[in-house]
Amino acid sequence: MRLLHTSDWHLGRAFHRVNMLGAQAAFVDHLVTTVRERDVDAVVVSGDVYDRAVPPLAAVELFDDALHRLAGLGVPTVMISGNHDSARRLGVGAGLIGRAGIHLRTEPSACGTPVVLSDAHGDVALYGLPYLEPALVRDEFGVEKAGHETVLAAAMDRVRADLAARARGTRSVVLAHAFVTGGRPSDSERDITVGGVAAVPAGVFDGVDYVALGHLHGCQTLTERVRYSGSPLPYSFSEAGHRKSMWLVDLAADGAVTAERVDCPVPRALARIRGTLEELLADPALARHEEAWVEATLTDPVRPADPMARLTERFPHTLSLVFAPDRPADDPEVSYARRLAGRGDLQIAEDFVAHVRGAGPDEHERAVLRDAFDAVRADETVREVAR
User: Fold this and answer.
1) Closest Cα to residue 170, out of 101, 105, 255, 110?
2) Angle 127-132-137 from CA coordinates, rounded to 5°
3) Where are the beta strands (DSSP E) in 194-290?
4) Are strands 179-180 and 199-200 parallel, antiparallel or unpaired?
5) How many CB atoms lie within 10 A of CB 299?
6) Mean pLDDT of the chain
7) What does the radius of gyration of the chain's CA atoms come to, in whole angstroms?
8) Which residues contact 358 (CB under 8 A, 6 or more apart)?
9) What is the pLDDT of residues 77-136, one digit of tens each?
């Protein structure tokens, strides 16, 4: 069986101030063409179909167009909700849409109920694990500690139990939206840290033939059977080095996996350039970036006059301008943002406690801070969906 694995469409999202809807529509065209021309048997979409719980109408219309075109090809599609999606909204009409071969899996309670497809070699069971917010699904899975690993492990127990009851030789595919250990993040993914831990071990998914992951925006292979497709388009300059693609996965009769990357259309190249303003304007080696979307980091010791206007004369598609004078890290002039770069909310809070009283929090206080951050994020998730 041939699967096309994609994820993280983020329909409705912009790239800085650039509307990406046209590029997203071009990706949908490419997806449909690939399904038709490469004899795809099923499409799997591993979450973050939309960029937010209440997407703009144009994004909903594009999603509707994609569903109609995929259904028109007669190729089954399985989709799960991600942490950016409203699971309840995305799942509206799932029963009716399923009759057209578009299977939306947004309910945690249905993790152990697969979409079963067949080929000449027998059945393939596709299990959809939507993004599982630990604080909101702990009761569903009966776990005492609300963490990503515990709820995913409980969901996978249901998958393995269902699979064990099926005919011998049934092949299996799991769709999941999670941060799995070994994956490389970028700046454009929403933080899903719970209790100070974001990642889960790949071993959680043991026992299935292929795991189609979503959430991280870089295409990557964790094992031959566990892969991220990545986002089809860039959503931050940290993705400048990404090759945007989908996975074309062949699942053999014995469950063996072979995979091929299928490149996605590139609306415009990304470039990150760094130096003084005069260096950036004069360096002939930067000519290759003149038509790219550019993030320029200026290292001038003093902020130059009209930097954006001058940069766009040479690089008309400059979207981001960063000031980072070359100074020692302990220089008092180093910006607050630079000092916080790469630090999570919990780390920042712990640093604040240490700054105020001269000593960092003890283990009990760290637990209080972790619980507070987890409760706030869970509450924000509930309120966003309820809007």
Assistant:
1) 255
2) 110
3) 199-200, 210-214, 220-223, 226-228, 245-251, 257-263, 270-275
4) parallel
5) 16
6) 92
7) 23
8) none
9) 999 999 999 999 999 999 999 999 999 999 999 999 999 999 999 999 999 999 999 999
pTM of the model: 0.87
Task: Give the strand pairing for 122-129 and 115-119.
Answer: antiparallel
Please enumerate in sequence order all residues whose Cβ is within 8 A of that of 326, keeping only pairs 6 or more positions apart, or say none: 299, 301
Q: Are strands 220-223 and 226-228 parallel, antiparallel or unpaired?
A: antiparallel
Place of tokens 């939507």: 130
Strand intervals (E) in 120-216: 122-129, 171-177, 179-180, 199-200, 210-214
The residue to which tokens 């303003």 are assigned: 277
Backbone angles phi, psi at 253, to 5 degrees: -60, -30
Only one residue has tokens 């990304």, namely 270
Mapped onto helix, strand or coil, the DSSP state of residue 374 is helix
Over residues 324-367, the pLDDT tens digits come to 998 665 565 555 555 666 677 777 887 888 777 777 888 877 77
> Do residues 76 and 101 lie in contact, with contact meaning Cβ atoms separated by under 8 Å?
yes
Q: Tokens 């309840």, residue? A: 88
In the Cβ-directed half-sphere of 134, how many Cα atoms lie within 13 Å?
A: 27
